[in-house]
Amino acid sequence: MQIQLITIGNKMPTWVQAGYDEYAKRLPRECELVLKEIPPGKRGKNSDSARIVKDEGDKMIAAIAKDAHVVTLDVPGKLLSTPELSVALKRWLESGRNVALLVGGPEGLSDDAKQLARESWSLSKLTFPHPLVRVIVAEQIYRAWSILNNHPYHRE
């Protein structure tokens, strides 16, 4: 199974890429985490934000692997504890399907992207900067995997 982290944004600071890479490389091939970056739309004073969000959403949808189980990361989504995420990860692994985790841009996800989702996951009631979300998601996926495999990382 491959977990695609499809996110709006590119040109991240070095610490973001290093943090993401650290956790992604720890995951085994059967639970591979792959980052797919979608360049953000150009924003300015007179930008049509609705059009930008729609265009970003269309690009995200095009990046989703065929027959993938789509999960949005969205503030109104379901709050999961780490053990609950490990249960979800187990379900995803047992399904044999790829998973696409969608992270929108500054204005959020497009309605079309949200409609494709089978689940919606909220990291917190707090708002995190998009670069940090990549690191948090990678770490939590690795932690959930470590719980499923009795790896000592979760207990550290």
What CATH architecture do you see? 3-Layer(aba) Sandwich
Proportion in β-strands: 15-25%
Number of domains: 1
Helices and strands, in order, run as EHEHEHEHEH
Distance between the termini: 26 Å
The CATH topology label is: Alpha/beta knot
User: Which spans have pLDDT < 50 for at least 5 consecutive residues?
Assistant: none
Class derived from helix and strand content: alpha/beta
What's the alpha carbon Rg, rounded to whole Å? 15 Å
Number of helices: 5
CATH level-4 homologous superfamily: SPOUT methyltransferase, trefoil knot domain
Q: How is the quaternary structure best described?
A: single chain
Share of residues in helices: 40-55%
Strand order of the largest sheet: 2-1-4-3-5
Report the top-level CATH class: Alpha Beta
The rough form would be described as globular
Number of strands: 5
Mean pLDDT: 93
Q: Tell me the major beta sheet.
A: 5 strands, parallel
What features would you describe in this structure?
This protein is of the alpha/beta class and 156 residues long. It has one domain: Alpha/beta knot. The chain contains 5 helices and 5 strands. The protein is globular, with a radius of gyration of 15 Å. 30% of the residues are buried. The mean pLDDT is 93.
